[in-house]
From TrEMBL:
Organism, as annotated: Terriglobus albidus
DNA-binding region(s) in UniProt: 56-75
Domain of life where this protein originates: Bacteria
Protein name, per record: TetR/AcrR family transcriptional regulator
PROSITE patterns: HTH_TETR_2 (PS50977)
Length: 241
């Protein structure tokens, strides 16, 4: 789960999920977008359930209500469809986090809202897909190199203090490692929650995630009172204005 804004890095082999609308969409474009949306929704379920290697294009097509030909008309390979699913997960998380940033100028409040977001467990499939991406990157390092780079950019040094108002901690690189730890620990807890639901119910997993967040980012890491000018600048940066 992302905790900072993703940089606008679009791998060349991944179709863009955002369509420019300088002019009204044609009926064909509207139909194509509806097809992509249906395919991505179905693919999320199949990839999360079966993993990349075992996922079947025919089953994705059937679940989406489209044909096998419709899948390959939009995505030339299963790998391309898998990357498109990951791209949508990234963009969704990015939009959710940016919305949190835009709702307040108070850095302590931002951290509190981020804590709630991090422990929300809105969709366990996100954790499963995150695991699949990492496994894919390990098994296919050449084709997935751009995704490994993008993942580390997401949790890069400076993203927390710049966007959430965290004070400088001893050793700037520790911000990077803490952000990576948050995402990795959440994925691990989701897997355990799915595997042993009787031993780790959702309510307990949420409490554990909050404790992890508090341990990695205690209150004294938050800038006490940032100048309004700086707060407005951060909001402008996040909103892309």
């Amino acid at each position: 789960m992302t905790l900072a804004g993703f940089e606008a890095v679009q791998p060349a082999h991944v179709p863009s999920l955002v369509m420019k609308q300088d002019r009204p969409l044609t009926k064909h474009a509207i139909k194509s977008k509806a097809t992509r949306d249906a395919l991505l929704k179905a693919a999320e379920q199949i990839f999360a359930r079966d993993g990349y290697e075992r996922a079947q294009i025919d089953e994705i097509a059937q679940l989406s209500g489209r044909t096998r030909g419709a899948v390959y008309a939009q995505y030339k390979t299963k790998e391309q469809l898998f990357f498109a699913v990951q791209e949508r997960q990234i963009e969704t998380a990015k939009a959710e986090v940016q919305k949190l940033l835009l709702e307040t100028d108070d850095y302590a409040e931002r951290l509190a809202r981020l804590r709630e977001y991090y422990s929300g467990l809105r969709d366990p499939r996100a954790g499963l897909l995150d695991l699949e991406l990492k496994l894919y990157a390990i098994r296919h390092p050449e084709s997935a190199a751009s995704w490994a780079d993008r993942y580390t950019r997401t949790y890069g040094p400076g993203s927390f203090d710049a966007e959430f108002g965290l004070a400088q901690l001893p050793g700037r690189s520790r911000l990077h490692s803490r952000a990576l730890a948050l995402a990795s620990l959440k994925t691990a807890l989701i897997l355990t929650m799915e595997f042993l639901p009787d031993h780790l119910p959702r309510s307990e997993a949420k409490l554990l995630l909050k404790e992890v967040f508090d341990g990695l980012f205690p209150p004294n890491t938050v800038a006490g009172s940032a100048p309004k000018k700086k707060a407005r600048a951060v909001r402008k940066k996040v909103s892309g204005a």
